[in-house]
Specification:
The chain is mainly alpha-helical. It contains 15 helices and eight strands.
């Protein structure tokens, strides 16, 4: 009798394993009649399975699971990556800006090798190959955008029961390369001063002598500019850089007064940072011969400044260099450009801090 039970048990153990993701069948010897218990596949998040039912034979349990899985298959189950992208973008792009859409459409071009592949068959290595190809020619930031797109597509596929794992989360990115920023040389600064009657040059000089980022400068409200005491409250990118106290150098005070009095809005400048960068900053420097002339884009027919040597952010580095060369103390410089985190007590003595920073600016 014992030998017979062992043989039956051995026969049960030889039941073929079900394909991963199609559910589980367990034999329960303690059940009176229906010994075969069927459980659904894990949820799309891979967290748990659900009880389907008990059946007298393995074959019946198997049929129940097969029927369940057929009902689970969605219309997107056999979609290719390009089809998933089309459906995802149609929904997602309605919430994005024009530049946000452009970022994804550019990243999508790097997935061209996967366009015709079924989404459910793609794994991390497939996405990784696309990122690796991009990294050979382009920056880490572009690779990050590709990973972000792949992750969005995987999440969309998971929501529609096409896959049960976000394979894009395991993509490894190349190490970022630190780009050395250039600064305006003494000769170039002198050239700017020689042409400072131009309002665009005046704004560039204000950037060079305040250390504000370009978007910070154009976000300054007139209520935060004190012309009598000679300082500006501005900055918004980091916690250390928010609402920082920046004295106005005597060299640029007249420029600041001009823009303050001529502005027709609540802001110090009527311009916006994007418009100034493309239409005024680069053309002004190009006309003075500080950067190269624009080149024609064969695809659009428009003139473009390709990889200019000096960008608006270089004015911030120029400010830091001017301060260092003038002998401004490191802790004062860090406070001016908003890069350091100070102890709470250091920020309490606001009046002393303002006078110290004013003295530092006078050194330039």
């Amino acid at each position: 009798m014992t030998a017979l039970c062992f043989a039956i048990g051995a026969a049960k153990s030889k039941k073929p394993r079900r394909v991963k993701g199609t559910g589980t069948i367990r034999y329960r010897s303690d059940y009176t009649h229906n010994h075969y218990v069927a459980y659904s596949p894990n949820s799309k998040m891979g967290t748990k399975s659900n009880y389907i039912g008990c059946f007298p034979t393995y074959k019946e349990a198997q049929q129940a699971l097969d029927s369940f899985n057929e009902d689970r298959i969605t219309d997107l189950y056999n979609c290719t990556l390009s089809e998933i992208y089309e459906k995802w973008s149609k929904e997602h792009f309605t919430t994005l800006t024009k530049s946000g859409i452009q970022g994804y459409t550019t990243a999508y071009k790097y997935l061209s090798d996967l366009y015709s592949s079924k989404m459910r068959l793609l794994k991390t290595k497939d996405y990784q190959n696309c990122v690796n190809q991009c990294s050979e020619k382009y920056s880490r930031s572009q690779c990050e955008k590709i990973k972000q797109l792949c992750s969005q597509l995987c999440k969309y596929a998971m929501m529609n029961d096409v896959i049960n794992k976000n394979y894009a989360q395991f993509i490894t990115l190349p190490k970022g390369k630190t780009k050395e920023r250039e600064v305006f040389s003494e000769k170039e600064l002198n050239l700017l001063w020689q042409n400072s009657a131009d309002r665009n040059i005046q704004i560039i000089l204000i950037l060079c002598y305040t250390g504000f980022r370009i978007n910070e400068l154009f976000s300054i409200k007139k209520e935060n500019v004190n012309l009598d005491e000679g300082y500006i409250i501005g900055g918004n990118k980091t916690q250390a850089g928010k609402n920082r106290f920046v004295p106005i150098s005597d060299k640029i005070i007249d420029f600041v007064k001009y823009f303050y009095n001529s502005s027709t809005t609540d802001y110090l400048f009527n311009d916006d940072s994007s418009n100034f960068r493309k239409r005024k900053f680069y053309p002004a420097l190009s006309e003075l011969g500080i950067i190269d002339q624009p080149q024609k884009n064969n695809a659009t027919g428009k003139l473009e400044y390709k990889n200019p040597r000096l960008t608006p952010h270089c004015t911030r580095h120029t400010f830091a260099t001017l301060c260092k060369n003038a002998g401004v103390e490191p802790e004062q410089l860090q406070k001016l450009i908003g890069h350091s985190k100070y102890e709470t007590t250091a920020n309490i003595y606001i009046h002393e801090s303002q006078e110290t920073l004013k003295a530092a600016i006078r050194l330039i």
